[in-house]
């Protein structure tokens, strides 16, 4: 179950980037270590909270929220609404990513953290970094 959630989170990231013509992300072991440390912290505290750092972009999910988050972001996209989690995933200038995952001690939640460099969602850079989907025929 845990591995499937991570695979879903990562494959969703790569699929969205491809649909928008963005280059694939490269795995970064430092980002993965830091993402894992934050996932460990979230699981220990049993909260879903962003870390405080401007050096990287960050997306969070729990095992219970992944499917709903995907549906919600898809709906927002269809309404032409820019969701910051979504735009970080497809941010064209982002080139590296690392992911971490951890169970809460009670076993009821799985926390997944994605970290991205360079960070996306930079004010004034959305037009050149958030491409429209590639038309499919």
Tell me briefly what this model is.
This protein is an alpha+beta fold and 137 residues long. The chain contains 5 helices and 4 strands, in the order αβαβααββα.
Describe the structure.
- This protein is of the alpha+beta class and 137 residues long.
- The protein has one domain (2-129): Pathogenesis-related Protein p14a.
- The protein has helices at residues 2-19, 29-45, 66-78, 84-90, 126-129, and strands at residues 26-27, 57-62, 96-103, 110-117.
- Strands 1-3-4-2 form a four-stranded mixed β-sheet.
- Strand 3 (96-103) and strand 4 form a beta hairpin.
- The longest helix has 18 residues, at 2-19.
- The protein is globular and about 45 Å long.
Radius of gyration from CA coordinates: 15 Å
Proportion in helices: 40-55%
CATH class: Alpha Beta
**Number of β-strand runs:** 4
Q: How many structural domains in the coordinates?
A: 1
What structural class is derived from the secondary structure elements? alpha+beta
Instruction: Examine the secondary-structure arrangement and name the CATH architecture.
Output: 3-Layer(aba) Sandwich
Question: Which descriptor suits the 3D outline?
Answer: globular
How confident overall, as mean pLDDT?
Answer: 81
Instruction: Note poorly predicted spans.
Output: 65-73, 75-82
Q: Report how far apart the termini are.
A: 35 Å
Q: Major beta sheet, specifics?
A: 4 strands, mixed
Major sheet: arrangement of strands = 1-3-4-2
Output the helix-strand order: HEHEHHEEH
Number of helices: 5
Beta-strand portion reads 15-25%
CATH topology name, in short, is Pathogenesis-related Protein p14a
CATH superfamily: CAP
């Amino acid at each position: 179950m845990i591995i499937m959630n991570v695979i879903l989170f990562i494959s969703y990231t790569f699929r969205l980037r491809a649909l928008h013509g963005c280059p694939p992300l490269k795995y970064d072991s430092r980002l993965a270590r830091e993402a894992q440390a934050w996932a460990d912290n979230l699981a220990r505290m049993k909260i879903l909270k962003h870390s405080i750092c401007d050096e990287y972009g960050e997306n969070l999910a729990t095992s219970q929220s992944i499917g709903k988050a995907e549906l919600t972001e898809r709906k927002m996209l269809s309404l032409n609404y820019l969701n910051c989690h979504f735009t970080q995933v497809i941010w064209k200038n982002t080139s590296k990513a690392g992911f971490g995952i951890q169970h809460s001690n009670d076993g009821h939640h799985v926390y997944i953290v994605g970290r991205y460099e360079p960070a996306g969602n930079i004010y004034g850079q959305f037009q050149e970094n958030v491409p429209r989907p590639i038309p499919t025929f």
